Amino acid sequence: PIIYVITPTYKRPEQIAELTRLGQTLLSVSGIHWIIGDDSSKVNKRVLELLEFLGIPHTYLLTPMPEVYRNAVVKVGRKAWRRSKRAFVQLPRGVANRMGGLDWVKKHASSGVVYFADDDNTYDIRLFEEMRYTKRVSMWPVGLMSSSGVSTPVLQKGEFIGWYDGFISNRVFPVDMAGFAVSVELLHQAPNASMPFKAGHEETGFLESLGISVADIEFRADNCSKIYVWHTQTVRIYVSRRLEFMRKQYRDSNDDVF
Ligand code: UGA
Ligand code: MN
């Protein structure tokens, strides 16, 4: 079966480095189709150039985050901000991108597997063989999760007994996006499945909308005892605007690198 790897991405200084690392991992995996959902309304030439160089079967989609969410932090306003008593309001990252990827898969494939691979995680190529024969939904541990270290289903003698995750809350499936794959057949059986624009609840919302239960889960990676994917997070660089004068000084040069 073909694995449809759906990767949300967005423009920032780290973007091409992230996609290079992920893309060169995917070069070692056969039988995949890479769907890159760009959180933008215009094509990013650098991303296209990388995809062309890599030569992995791929589809590049423009899947911008709806404006209402992008401006959410601003719209909350001072009072509402205080009332919510939250340190910060998180955007639902990568949702429009993944939904765009799902629409593409539903239109172009009747079988196979879908995996949501964020551009900043670290993937062992063995992960892809673990998910390749997913009947409905498969799951495995994700390493380097903040607060819990690992996020994983817990098995005892091969039987599911609970979840280990730093954010259980009221989530039916307290898992990370990198910790599961679903079959294309299941997507077709649940045509109204969708991912909510709600930070922290994208995974459970999507899995619940597929109408699955714990009994449907195929536990992989040696009964969830091996880690083949890590939730790595890249430290962001800060580009000083004060260097604008230097950029102006070097017109008609290799100035598109800086
Ligand atoms: C965690 C989960 O691992 C994500 O799968 C989940 O979408 C996210 O939380 C959430 O709940 O919003 P985290 O590492 O905190 O992820 O988030 P990022 O890696 O910054 O973003 C997830 C994906 O969305 C990445 O592939 C990123 O490139 C993309 N993204 C991020 C956008 O497309 N647009 C943005 O504005 C930000
Ligand atoms: Mn991430």
TrEMBL record:
Its EC number is 2.4.1.135. Keywords: Glycoprotein, Golgi apparatus, Manganese, Membrane, Metal-binding, Signal-anchor, Transferase, Transmembrane, Transmembrane helix. It is found in: Golgi apparatus membrane. Mn(2+) binds at residue 120. The active site is at 203 (proton donor/acceptor). It comes from the Eukaryota. Pathway: Protein modification; protein glycosylation. GO terms for cellular component: Golgi membrane. It catalyses: 3-O-(beta-D-galactosyl-(1->3)-beta-D-galactosyl-(1->4)-beta-D-xylosyl)-L-seryl-[protein] + UDP-alpha-D-glucuronate = 3-O-(beta-D-GlcA-(1->3)-beta-D-Gal-(1->3)-beta-D-Gal-(1->4)-beta-D-Xyl)-L-seryl-[protein] + UDP + H(+). Its cofactor is Mn(2+). Its main location: Golgi. It is a single-pass type II membrane protein. GO terms for biological process: carbohydrate metabolic process; chondroitin sulfate proteoglycan biosynthetic process. One of its GO terms (molecular function) is oxidoreductase activity. Belongs to the glycosyltransferase 43 family. This is Galactosylgalactosylxylosylprotein 3-beta-glucuronosyltransferase. It comes from Penaeus vannamei.
